[in-house]
Design goal:
The complex is a heterodimer.
Chain A: E1 5-9, H1 13-24, E2 28-33, H2 38-41, E3 49-50, H3 56-64, E4 68-71, H4 78-88, E5 91-92, H5 96-103, H6 105-114, E6 122-125, H7 129-139, E7 143-147, E8 157-160, H8 166-172, E9 178-182, E10 186-196, E11 202-204, E12 208-213, E13 216-222, H9 228-243, E14 249-258, E15 263-269, H10 279-282, H11 287-295, E16 313-320, H12 330-338, E17 342-346, E18 356-364, H13 367-377, E19 405-409, H14 415-427, E20 432-436, H15 443-452, E21 460-465, H16 477-483, H17 492-504
Parallel strand pairs in A: 1-2, 1-4, 2-3, 4-5, 19-20, 19-21
Antiparallel strand pairs in A: 6-9, 7-8, 7-9, 10-11, 10-12, 10-14, 12-13, 13-16, 14-15, 16-18, 17-18
Helix pairs in contact in A: 1-11, 4-5, 12-13
Chain B: H1 2-5, E1 10-14, E2 30-31, H2 37-49, H3 53-80, H4 82-87
Parallel strand pairs in B: 1-2
Helix pairs in contact in B: 2-3
The chains are: A alpha/beta, B mainly alpha.
Amino acid sequence: MDSKVIGILGGGQLGRMIVEAANRLNIKTIVLDAPNSPAKQINALDPHVNGSFTDPKCIKELASRCDLLTVEIEHVDADYLMELQAQTNIEIYPLPETIKLIQDKYLQKLHLLEHDIQVVESKSVESTKESLLTIGKSFGYPFMLKSRTLAYDGRGNYVVKSEAGIDDALKTLSNRPLYVEKWAPFVKELAVMVVRSVDGNVQSYPVVETIHENNICHLCYCPARVNYTVQEKAQLLARNAIKTFNGAGIFGVEMFLLANGELLINEIAPRPHNSGHYTIDACNISQFEAHIRSITNLPMPKGFTSLTTTSTNSIMLNVLGDYITPDAELEKCRKALETPHASVYLYGKTTRPGRKMGHINIVSSSMEDCQRRLDYIMGHTNEIPASLDFNKDNQIAGTSIKPLVGVIMGSDSDLPVMSKGCEILKKFNVPFEVTIVSAHRTPHRMSKYAIESTRRGLKCIIAGAGGAAHLPSSSSTTTTITTFPFSFPISLDLISFYFKNKTKQ
Amino acid sequence: MVAAMTPLPVIGVPVKGSTLDGMPRGVPVATVAINNATNAALLAIKILGAHDSKWLIEMETYMNNMEEEVLTKAQRLEAIGYEDYLKQ
């Protein structure tokens, strides 16, 4: 494979999982962090560098032994990395200037705004009561007071609920540059991993839904439980955002989904991300391998970020240090080991309340099944869900797991007519499925259905054509192929408006 | 639009009240008579038979049975006359 040696600034769990991915490709890694950090524990092939990723001396030593530097944490000495790159010509991905830009969350937001990427409304602010009172008047309460730098896992954030909370907020976040964010009344938090090649091509992983508890990621559902239009829009937004940062690497893009369907970027991380751990089991290529491939210029074929199968569903559970009894969190891991379709990843850390000790990935063919398994692992039920028997097809007609024929219709009002065909398929024992796919109301679902049909093993599709007869074919198909909203944001209303007008012609 | 996005054969069932003018050249959709999903399903099975003979045999049996059914009906009709046949 590639003979490059990669130096990693930071040796936490993200570094550990980068090392794992690199090992499988015969790529050498050297880690800079404190002795015995998680990433170092699993790589005894090379002598590591002991010290801090913010110390120029240590970074220099690491660089002297590597062909390429990368980071698993953005809080590194970015200025020194820039200097080092200029002096030695060593490759550094993500680019030091990108790291520096993202390090300062306020500059990060200004940068995105300049490129017309929707972000949460933000303002820089002085650390005084007067300036926060002024902000309170214009943004209203609550608003978020955030540290511009060195913040992670919710540390460095403070929700200012009213004027009375301002003093406490300033005390909690004293001695650091601050900025404020307008409160985003979100209904869900979504995240997308995006990988960018050296020459600027971006590819996105599926959209996930993250559930936070005490500001720390608790659960991650993939795919996110939102409709296809929102999923497409979220991926597009994430890709467009990452296009604006030069250099290669993987990026985590966190966003808010508002009640009106609007998406706002919350934060970007220039490294593998907690919301991408599911990719280890749910995708063929994990976020960690994608990162390695992107920074070493290895092939990244189109679609290499997709889920392993079209019916893959996944839930990731973070294993956090128990708040009462040390190591009590390991009980969840033991239960996960008892559960088919679940896998455990521990990071080799000493337990502390709320510390990220590991994670558990659950992968199955339906989200309901993933949830059942999660319920057992969390201790909500004592019944271990059995492994799925893929050989036994579903007994209910029209719900085959491996259908040969798909019967689709734009509306359930067509069902009485279409059911006559279903009866024939049932009589012949043909494995088939019946579902509603509307060209007008669910355009993304329809395209997904059509595009994935061959991969799912379908051999023929029967489409009911009520109303405008757009489902099986359409007078606008030829233009639709080129203008279908894969590559630019066009609202659902616009699409149906377009079709309605086409129909009238 | 499904037909525009998949290489698989697509059979359209026009449900009563729909317009059929929206079928552009280059994106073929096999169609059956209005509301005739039964024929759509039979056509689908015939298509399956083109790559797996299991469905060919099933279809042959079905067609044979269909012939038998008609012959039985004809025999009865000839024997009891059309007036009694209608009454049953």
